[in-house]
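Course exercise 7: structure representation. Students receive a sequence record and must write out the corresponding structure in token form. The form below is the worked example handed out in class, using ATP-binding cassette domain-containing protein (225 residues). Read each field label carefully; the graders check that inputs and outputs are placed in the correct fields and that the protein name is recorded exactly as given.

STUDENT ID: A-19
EXERCISE PROTEIN: ATP-binding cassette domain-containing protein
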Amino acid sequence: MAEPILSFDQVTILQEGVPTLQNVSFQLNPGDFAYLVGKSGSGKSTLFRAIFSELPIEIGMASVAGFNLNQIQKKEVPFLRRKLGFVFQDFQLLTDRNVEKNLSFVLEATGHTNKAEINTKIEEVLAKVGMSNAIHKKIHKLSGGEQQRISIARALLNNPVLILADEPTGHLDPEVSKEILMLFKELNQQGTTLLIASHDYSTIRQFPGRYFKCENNTIQEIAGV
Ligand SMILES: Nc1ncnc2c1ncn2[C@@H]1O[C@H](COP(=O)(O)OP(=O)(O)OP(=O)(O)O)[C@@H](O)[C@H]1O
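STUDENT ANSWER:
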């Protein structure tokens, strides 16, 4: 069996000295398609912040993408984050720039300088999300669903070992939400591992995966939602 991409073993996460999540133990394996569900305030964002090392792990053992979160140095954190892809509810794109600029910006910020390579990479990720024709369009001219596709393309740029999506359909109507989940499934079938925080149960039920529930200050794997 391949090494897990994420492994939490009896982890407690403190925020301002108060345990927000306690005794969390779970693993994600390469190729998993996993959901994180739970009410607002149950700790989904807290878990994500721990995964990308914004919150320290002081109790229990945790590793993500080959980094030991108990011992990670501040200077290593950007390298951990480069192995992760992030997708947000509100897309977090540069709305007054075009698609190409939104994507080249990320590659340039992570040390890519070869223009031909940058272009190839951009074409590749846009093809994956079905948005090749939008390369020169300004973000604010795109629909919500199209903007979310661009944000997924951005998340794919550095070939992440894990995509973390935080309420990715929160601002989308049911039909478009379904299309976004369908895209996630396709990417998963091509080998991408995903952890999707969502309370959009009617959509996620149509695209089954593993389910982890945040409840009572901890996280448990459940059979379905
Ligand atoms: N900076 C902080 N300091 C102390 N407690 C915090 C902090 N941020 C969040 N919390 C608490 O941690 C708990 C979990 O919050 P979290 O934001 O992780 O929930 P969530 O499931 O992501 O909710 P939502 O879906 O509304 O974002 C809440 O009780 C919240 O009040």
